[in-house]
Design goal:
Length: 390
Amino acid sequence: MGSLSNIDQSNNETRGKVITCKAAVVWAPKEPLVIEEVNVDPPQKMEVRIKILYTSICHTDLGAWKGENESQRAFPRILGHEAAGIVESVGEGVLDIKEGDHVIPIFNGECGDCGYCKSEKTNLCAKFRVNPMKSVMVVDGKTRFSTRDGQPIYHFLNTSTFSEFTVLDSACVVKIDPKASLKKMSLLSCGISTGVGAAWNTANVQSGSTVAIFGLGALGLAVASGARARGASRIIGIDINKDKFIKGQTMGMTHFINPKDLKRPVHEEIRELTDGGVDYSFECAGNLDVLREAFLSTHDGWGMTIILGIHPTPRMMPLHPMEFFDGRRITGTVFGDFKGKTQLPQFAEECMGGVVNLDEFITHELPFSKINEAFQLLIEGKSLRCVLEL
């Protein structure tokens, strides 16, 4: 791992120049990632080049690696979007970030100037919101990565963190407290922020509320942590993997339901357990049948279902419009409704203070060279977050 002093010393040598470094390149869907030398161009106007020190793997990376839909089939590509690092250099016009800053890349950017960013009703951005179709930089429509012989390598989710150096739009770079552990802070780029934010910002879980979480990967367990921090009275976890209950208990889950053990629909079990249904349900599985169960598990009159899972199939929602006349609501959330640049630093401070225990989510640590092993751990359901050190 490079130290801050080493990076400071190298800035004069690399600023404004092409950097050659190691990156994990995906050449085609489902093929093993290849660690190889790539060229990383200097940042252009309103861009930032970062030295990545830690990165981890999310199910969204896994879906892109599989090529699950047309929008994710730009290859060769450098995946990765959960990371932390140190700024190596900045492009023209970047004023809020400087060389040496400790930063987190975010896939859902915030320019601060558009109508979306100025609105309190959304955390989307007109130009830098999450966009799986985007594979090049905004300023010139080109990539900043290339092979040693000049072949372009495409970007991913505004970030591309499976590389020792990466270039991002400054709108997708969040400055954090230099005293924070970069290893832990890397988790805030996606899953943990999305899950906790869904509980805090989207649902606004109140003390004494009842919650049901469908799908207990890192995303669902982050929801549990957020609900626990808000004082939820019952946090019900639903998963077909019984081992999830053990981990879930450490993060605040009070009840566990394995659908395989039931002879009736899950929502009927939850309604009986909670006297009519939970106040909030969270769908973290990316499964439409599960989404229907999550919706029906909420209490009529006021229940709310929040969709967090990614749904790659063309199937439509299995709900009839008249079902909303019972007072139940349903909504989705992007990045837990956090505005990345303005609100994430405060969330990072809360995590430093122990409001959310990030250590609970790091189940494995490996060197970057073993990234394919880390992917396999996620595929097999053995890891929540495997942090890779570059």
